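Illustration 12: Glucokinase.
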Amino acid sequence: MVGPRCLAGTGEGRSWGYREEGRAMALTQALTIGIDIGGTKVAAGVVDPEGNILDRLRRDTPTKDPKETEDAIAEVVHDLESRHDVIAVGIGAAGFVDGTRSSVLFAPHLAWRHEPLRDAVERRLGLPVVVENDANAAAWSEWRFGGGQGESHLVCVTLGTGIGGAILNDGALQRGKFGIAGEFGHMQVVPGGHRCECGNRGCWEQYASGNALTREARELALSGSPVAHNLLRAAEGDPRRINGPMVTELAKDGDPVAVELLEDVGRWLGIGLANLAAALDPGTFVIGGGVSDAGELLLAPAREAFKRTLTGRGFRPEARIVRAVLGPEAGMVGAADLAREEATWLRRVRVKTTAVTAKTAARGGRSTRLDRAARKSASRRTGMRAATSEGELQLEHTGDLQLDLPAEPQLNQTRRNQGEPEA
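Figure caption equivalent — predicted structure in token form:
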């Protein structure tokens, strides 16, 4: 096997060793594990480089305690690792993930605050771990394998309990200065409107999410209006049992009230997308999450509202609005692929640093200015320090990992910005 194993330490002392054992395999073709953390479950899958899920497991997490979630993650990874040779683990988590992709700063639906998830899981697994916002992970997978393939400027919006989002430009996830870009669901669209779980009022996700659809349907049923009879019948007379999938199924069966409820959510979706288009100017919006199962019942009114409220309408190109194609497993697939990209980049640093070390040794230990520049460049891009000992290369983390590692186009852009040749 060729792959990283934890040598010692966590956080700023995070160290990884690579040892060649038998025939080397290309890390770009290696298997990784993707994990999707939900409010009540941990889902994991072994993913190949084409985005196919080869094996999967699920564990319930009845509490929101971080330690129980970490226990569930370790359990599913150990189980899958016993059947597959994997090199890294990617975790998709709802909430704000810091710029080093190591800690969950804020997760309103999990009640996590500054949770050092990466280090906690790495200690248990002995594998490199990447923690990514779940919407970023889903967007990455749609760009790589799904509805966003071939699009240079993509915005992904996921409609579930709330609204998540992600931005990709030229193959690079845009995380922002602090790593929390894309939290579109908490744009305020109705000042003083419905109370949001984040503590504010009038957030977009209070009007265009699965929770919004459920709330409006339940309120209609509770009002006693005779038009809600199909909703009540589907819920066996109990308005509290009404949920988003139930409304969607009724709408697909032609129930006019359910269709109207989805149209209302779609209109709010289109208004928000028009605001995002004014700020970000993407070529494509990919709409995912459970609510997107409604298909054109949701997207048709969204497109109409988008065109009606778009700044400069009629005088500018309009972004496409399409449905995501990878479904609820997009986050799992994306997290696994991002973990593979990071492991591959670490290997590239290993090869480059080994070559520089060999050249220096051939000169009797005297490094040239070019050698020193190469080491400095690698260190600057990766935040890692490299050293060799007895045929093993150790990559020791010496600071916050600032690079967006996922995509070669992004790395080439970094090189161009620094005046270096592309790979």
